[in-house]
């Protein structure tokens, strides 16, 4: 996996540049997984989507990074197929905070409810893809 900045993702030559690199080093596109942050996706616009379509057609895959910390726009994110959605640690850690569980019991239960619902949404998203 390789993280890409929002600027790199919207460069019109990205697909052809990656294709040249893969050819030069004999890398199978199936081994390329580009990581896009939630914020970069929401802020990048049409060029990112065009590049993602071209790269996916070449055989590359995509992961969304830091889900839950950026400018979530679930309807816009549903337009793109991700092979992996990486939840941000800020969504997960509060659910397992044993040290402060008595003090923050309500906060832990809220965090757990939010995490459970995010997982349900992502599973439904996956079922629709299959």
Descriptive overview:
52% of the residues lie in helices and 14% in strands. A four-stranded parallel β-sheet has the order 1-2-3-4. It has seven helices and four strands; from the N terminus they run E-H-H-E-H-H-E-H-E-H-H. The chain is elongated. Helix 2 packs parallel to helix 4. It starts with a strand and ends with a helix. It is α/β, with parallel strands linked by helices and 130 residues long.
Trace the largest sheet across and list its strands: 1-2-3-4
Roughly what fraction of the amino acids lie in strands? 5-15%
| β-strand number | 4
Query: Helix count?
Result: 7
Summarize the structure.
The chain is α/β, with parallel strands linked by helices and 130 residues long. It has helices at residues 6-9, 14-24, 38-44, 46-58, 74-77, 89-92, 105-129; strands at 2-3, 33-37, 61-67, 84-87. The chain is elongated, with a radius of gyration of 17 Å.
Q: In terms of topology, how is this protein built?
A:
Blueprint: E1 2-3, H1 6-9, H2 14-24, E2 33-37, H3 38-44, H4 46-58, E3 61-67, H5 74-77, E4 84-87, H6 89-92, H7 105-129
Parallel strand pairs: 1-2, 2-3, 3-4
Helix pairs in contact: 2-4
Keywords for this entry:
7 helices, 52% helix, four-stranded parallel beta sheet, 130 residues, alpha/beta
């Amino acid at each position: 996996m390789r993280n890409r900045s929002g600027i790199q993702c919207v460069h019109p030559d990205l697909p052809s540049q990656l294709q040249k690199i893969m050819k030069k080093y004999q890398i199978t596109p199936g081994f390329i997984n580009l990581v896009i942050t939630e914020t970069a996706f929401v802020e990048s616009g049409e060029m990112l989507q065009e590049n993602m379509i071209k790269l996916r057609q070449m055989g590359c895959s995509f992961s969304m990074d830091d889900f839950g910390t950026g400018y979530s726009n679930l309807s816009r994110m549903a337009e793109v197929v991700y092979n992996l959605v990486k939840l941000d640690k800020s969504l997960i850690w509060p659910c397992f905070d044993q040290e402060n569980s008595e003090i923050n019991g309500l906060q832990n239960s809220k965090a757990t409810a939010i995490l459970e619902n995010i997982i349900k949404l992502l599973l439904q998203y996956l079922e629709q893809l299959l």
